[in-house]
Amino acid sequence: MRAVIATSYGSPFTVADIPTPVPGPGQLQVRIAAAALNPADLRIAAGDLRAVAELTFPHTLGTDFAGTVTAVAPDVTAYTPGDEIFGHAMPRALRPIAGRHRPSLGSGTLAEFAVVEADTPFITHRPPGLDPADAAALGTAGLVARALLIRAAIQPGETVLVIGATGGIGTALIPLLADAKARVIATATPPDAGILRGLGASRLIPYGAEHYPGGTDVVLNLVLPGDRLDGAAAALRPGGRLFSVTFPAPRPDLIGRNDVTAELVLDSEGALGGMHEVAELAGTGLLRPTVGGRYELDEGPRAYADLATRHTLGKQIVIP
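The structure assignment produced for this chain is given below.
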């Protein structure tokens, strides 16, 4: 099969023919219809997590997908060939940092076929009304947006600052915040302003701003490292709340505040809900992805280069 691979840490990505993965016990094989790119894919392939989990090469890129089940192991009963599914599957090498119970692991989704675990909350049946590309775009973005909404417990009228609003998570999250009756302040570049306002942002500030509006109730950080959030924390009112999805976890000594709540949102066990709940929320029309670019499989290396070097909007999708 054809797949987008890395042949060593830091090597340029390429498209190559590799063996088609075969499902083992508890696993199913999927014919990929669409896969979504994530910045974490680049970090993993660069070796940033090497101290925790060593990759084997060639390494197939990709975690988020939508596709059709083509084969199942004899012990799998929840899925049958022909089922349309979608979800999120981390590279198997990252098992040490995946959830302890029912982790979602896979062989890489930027490929014609992938093998994933069947018994995990991070994979589910794709609703008929959800397009495969949109479903793939909601793999990581939908899970994180929904988890942030739950943990932040936004109240009507609160001011919420979203840092990194133009990415896949941000563009999925803003409509949820607007529906919660929050006043959304979003970081954006000028070309993205109209799109973010259409999603529900009430105020825009420049991407990469050094100072943020004061008196903010909640900060949702989607991109900045956890040790670079002192400026964002300074914008919070006393007793405000800061939620981040990046490492290191925000701590009082890192953010320069001990009078606010600061939390890393990382739900590796699916305690806040998995892809089934994402599918349900997508069915309401409130959770929807923004697909900023579409590529064919042979363009996969260029898609990752664009993600790494250009400002991209929403999710970038590869169609095998």
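Interim note for the steering committee: The two ends are 10 Å apart (CA to CA). The domain at 2-138+289-319 is CATH 3.90.180.10 (Quinone Oxidoreductase; Chain A, domain 1).
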